[in-house]
Amino acid sequence: MSQQGSTGNVIAAIASLFFPGLGQLLQGRILAALLFFVVTVVGYALWWLIVPAVLGAIFHLWSIIDAARFQAD
């Protein structure tokens, strides 16, 4: 995945839309994928506490944006 806006980044962003962290996993960033997945799922699982759910939603959005903007060195 060569640069921001490339087809690979678009696919990674779409993957993260449906499954948080999957886009980072497709890009080969295992630690980032795990972090986004765990924080988002735990946040959504604690939806009744409001604040964790909001944090989960923020991390989910962040994972989508991060996958779309990733630039490999």
Describe this structure in words.
The chain is an all-alpha fold and 73 residues long. The chain has one domain (7-69). Helices cover 71% and strands 0% of the residues. The protein is built from four helices and no strands. The protein has helices at 7-18, 22-26, 30-45, 51-69. Helix 1 packs antiparallel against helix 4 and helix 3 (30-45) runs antiparallel to helix 4. The chain is elongated and about 40 Å long. The termini are close together. The mean pLDDT is 89.
Shape label = elongated
Number of DSSP-assigned strands: 0
Count of DSSP-assigned helices: 4
In percent, how helical is the residue content? over 70%
Which structural category fits the helices and strands? mainly alpha
Tell me about the biggest sheet? none
Task: Give the topology string: H per helix, E per strand.
Answer: HHHH
Task: Write down the Rg.
Answer: 12 Å
Stretches where pLDDT is under 50 for at least 5 consecutive residues are none
Number of domains: 1
First and last CA, distance = 10 Å
- β content, as a range? under 5%
User: How confident overall, as mean pLDDT?
Assistant: 89
Keywords: Membrane, Transmembrane, Transmembrane helix
Organism: Shewanella oneidensis (strain ATCC 700550 / JCM 31522 / CIP 106686 / LMG 19005 / NCIMB 14063 / MR-1)
Protein name: YqaE/Pmp3 family membrane protein
